[in-house]
Amino acid sequence: MLVDREIVLGVSGGVAAYKAAALASLLVQRGAGVRAVLTANARRFVGAATFAALTGRPVATRSFDPSAHPLGAHIELTARADLVVVAPASADVLAKAAGGAADDLLTTLLLCAECPVLMAPAMNTAMWEKPAVQRNVARLIDDGIGIVPPGSGWLSCRRQGAGRMADPEEIARAIEDTLSGRAPRSTTP
C-alpha cells in the first residue's frame, strides 16, 4: 500500500514528537519515501538527526533554503507528495491551519498542498477540550482535512484524559486508508 508513496511528515512541537519518529520508521519500513518537516518547537523535543537517520533523507526546517529548494521548500515538497501528515498537530498548528496562516515552513506547506492532508492532534486535555480548539478541528474537517483523533490516557502533564496522540500504527492505517481512497475516521467536535 505504501510502496513508492511519497509522504511529507510534519512534526510540530509537543512531547508526542517522539511518536512521530516511530511513525517515520514504520512508514519507511512499509516502503514509503518520507520527508520530515520539523517546526522550531518540534526541534526542542526531538532532533532533526533522528528523522534524517530514520528516513534516509534530509530534514526540512527552513522556509528559505535556495540551495536545497530553489523554488521554495513548500512548493517542491508538496509537488512530490502523495500525502501530508502532521503528527503531532499542536493546538497552534491546528489554529494556524484552520485560519490559513503561513508563518513557517509547515504552515506554508499546508496551504500549498494539493494532495490529501491528515492531522493527528496531541495536547493537554484542557487544551483539547477548549471550544476554540474544537472549532478549529471542525473547520479543518469542513475544509477536507482528515483528523486522526487523539486517544485518552496518561499524558505528560501527569493527568489522565483526552489529547494523547494516536499511536503510530493507527496513524499509519489512516494514511493507508486515505491513499486507497477510503476516508479516515475524523473527530467531530
Characterization of the model:
- β1 (6-11), α1 (17-29) and β2 (33-38) form a beta-alpha-beta unit.
- The N and C termini lie far apart (30 Å).
- Helices cover 39% and strands 19% of the residues.
- The mean pLDDT is 88.
- It is of the alpha/beta class.
- The chain has a five-stranded parallel β-sheet, with helices on both faces.
- It is built from eight helices and seven strands.
- It has a single domain, classed as Rossmann fold (3-Layer(aba) Sandwich), CATH 3.40.50.1950.
Helix-strand blueprint:
Elements: E1 6-11, H1 17-29, E2 33-38, H2 48-55, H3 73-80, E3 83-89, H4 91-99, H5 105-112, E4 117-121, H6 125-128, H7 131-142, E5 146-147, E6 151-154, E7 160-164, H8 168-179
Parallel strand pairs: 1-2, 1-3, 3-4, 4-5
Antiparallel strand pairs: 6-7
Notable traits:
Rossmann fold; single chain; alpha/beta; 7 strands; 5-stranded parallel beta sheet; 189 residues; 8 helices; two-stranded antiparallel ribbon
**Strand order of the biggest β-sheet:** 2-1-3-4-5
| CATH architectural category | 3-Layer(aba) Sandwich
Rg, rounded, reads 15 Å
Which CATH C-level class is it? Answer: Alpha Beta
- CATH level-3 fold name: Rossmann fold
Largest sheet: 5 strands, parallel
Low confidence ranges: none
Relative helix content = 25-40%
Tally of contiguous helical segments:
8
The share of residues in extended strands comes to 15-25%
